[in-house]
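Support case: beta-D-glucopyranose complex. Customer-provided input:
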Amino acid sequence: MKWNERKAKDAIAVFSFGPEEIVAASEVFRSEMEKGVAGDKSSTLNPLPSFLGLPTGDEQGDFIALDFGGTNVRAERVRLFGGGQYERSACMAKPLIIPGRYNHANGGETAQGLFGFIAEIVDAVIGGDHETPYYLGHTFSFPAVQESPDDAKLLSWTKELAVPDVEGQWINERLSEAMQARGLTNVRPTAILNDTVAVMLAAAYQWDDVAIGSIYATGFNACYLEKFGGEKTPMVMNLEAGNFGWFDQNEYDAALDQASEKPGEQVLEKMVSGRYVGALFSRAFGDILGETFPAVTGEDIFHIIRGDDEGLLQRMAKGSLTEDQVRESIALAEAIVRRSARIAAAVYAGILRHVGNDGGRNIAVEGSFFMHMSMARATLHEALKELLGDEAEKVKVWQVTGGASLGAALAAAMNGK
Ligand code: BGC
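Agent response - structure generated as follows:
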């Protein structure tokens, strides 16, 4: 394996996202979201109404919260006390994929198999109780159209999920059928919402002035409260920001996109989220060494940047790297994460500009990638200053945990159940 110095320099350079690009990305994002909200079909963004406003903080009751994201399925019991107080208990979670054992996410799974797996987790969290009536709130982390908070129709899988015959289906209806098949007729799904919306509701239940709810994890996305003006009731809008396609893809972005389940879709997400940054690194690192490597994970990137897994780089390069080459490999991982955080900042600043000063200025973010990657957080803050100037001082970025569950319970409570 031979390190190509010129390629290393070029690879680091192609992941830069400079001052002009970040301003342009943010402005175009704002204008596209405004077009999309106004119903202009030529917009590259398709904002999806949640049919939910913000909670009052007084919501109360006991709920089952189901969180179906890109990596795990989790069910919890959540008790809302009002006054922004709540308690989570009895958690049951399983990954969608355990390599070598099962895979509930790929093209070999059936819709029935997937919903059966989810129903099994719900059954476990209530200890097999098929008598007591339960209301369930469902955080469903994929683009879906809604006509009410009751149900959502999946538009398109993202994050490499590929289970056939689920796109175009009403998700809570399929879930109800699977639960009935297990004898869980006592559990009623009463609300469904995107994970960004769940984070926004969870944050607004506890704190004031929340402007944006966002997930920065396996996937990336953001939502905000659209006031509409006039007679229309304000509503949280899921922007599906990960599908923003304005960017020039570099050669690694383009190759990753082509090899993905959905080429051409989720262009921003493939440059930003934890599901893809490791794959981008492996492609560029492989190009420098004239090799092909399997994708490393977002967590691997975290360790590479912290410098505590030099072994991983050497294992990939069969021990051939000099100290300088290790340093350049770390710089490559940093360039990928820096670009990711700068693009996230462009999205947030675009939304804040749209929202204006009328309302909150704070950003509630949940996600393992964001939580663990201190470099992404620091870069995000810097980039927000670059984009918003002095205004950035008024913007706080809050890290939320458990937002998917709390938000699901709140949505069920707000939907009058
Ligand atoms: C989905 C969004 C979701 C985000 C974060 C994206 O792939 O399209 O609906 O909010 O991931 O989980």
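The chain has a mean pLDDT of 96.

Case will auto-close in a few days if no follow-up is received.
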